[in-house]
From TrEMBL:
Belongs to the ALAD family. The lineage of its organism: Bacteria, Pseudomonadati, Pseudomonadota, Alphaproteobacteria, Hyphomicrobiales. GO terms for cellular component: cytosol. GO terms for biological process: heme biosynthetic process. The gene is hemB. Its EC number is 4.2.1.24. It comes from the Bacteria. It comes from Aureimonas endophytica. Pathway: Porphyrin-containing compound metabolism; protoporphyrin-IX biosynthesis; coproporphyrinogen-III from 5-aminolevulinate: step 1/4. This is Delta-aminolevulinic acid dehydratase. It holds the Pfam family ALAD. The keyword Phosphoprotein does not apply.
Amino acid sequence: MVLQHDRPTLSTRIDAVTGGRRLRRLRQHDWSRRLVRETELSPADLIWPIFVREGAGADEAVPSMPGVARRSVARAVEAAREARDLGIPVVALFPFTTRDRRDDRGSEALNENNLVCRASRAIKDAVPEVGILCDVALDPYTSHGHDGVMRGGRIDNDESVEILCRQALVQARSGCDIIGPSDMMDGRVAMIRETLDAEGLRDTMIMSYAAKYASAFYGPFRDAVGSNDLLKGDKRTYQMDFGNAEEAVREAAQDIAEGADMIMVKPGMVYLDIVARLAAEFGMPTFAYQTSGEYAMIEAAAGNGWLDGERAMMESLAAFKRAGAAGILSYFAPRAAAALRRG
Ligand code: PBG
């Protein structure tokens, strides 16, 4: 019984059971911890999602996402400048669309002067060093809040794909560098690639939301883009079932075969197993989306003083790198990049 040993005997016993391999040895100093750290987050790993709104003037707070706001196009350009200065390579643009610009076909998605297109052009013009990612999906534009179009009460895959291809084209022509199909329709990556190539847009990249789950962790995002009150039913006929991992492998394989340059898993924190698995299995640049709900969870707890928000932010982002992600879409991007630069 250990308690009966005197100290030297105890130490000898511990050396015997550990074989002298004392793993705490490397954790003694800040310098030794830094020396052996396996993965490290950098501003270059971050993609900053930005919400854009019509009109000019001050930012509009999104109550369910403390610290996140809907910005005018001019303020979105300022965000892109901030991204450049912080070393964040890419901003992702999401439009807040009021009810009057929505219809059941999401027609506004095809308007080359819609908010996302205007913001893309303005950012490309002012800050060409920063990459622009745009979501391809109809939910910011439909009156029913779904990512595709409805026919007979169902989301019609092929008809939706046809519209999504045109949406991708309109966005690419406005300066979007990376098309991010987030709609989960079948065959859309190949059809989008074909459409872009046919129009001479061979350099436009595709980051597919390869494994996107039907998730409760998108709630605050739907507030931010104005879809929450409109959404009829749920998205389970196209977004994935959270019980499935093998299916994520099939989804990713399919998107890669269809021409995706990069793949993404979403949500992120709750699906780190999928991130790790896809990164290891395909060796493709694999991204993770730390979604609005995951952000809100940390912010809400931090706001109540229940955890140290700054530390939780860094720890949560580091987890993605450890899992093998090439990068992370996160609303923390500017704060995390600033913290990383401070060291
Ligand atoms: C649109 C889209 C969603 C998100 C990104 N693109 C919402 C959804 O699918 O309902 C969620 C992002 C977030 O929660 O931060 N298809």
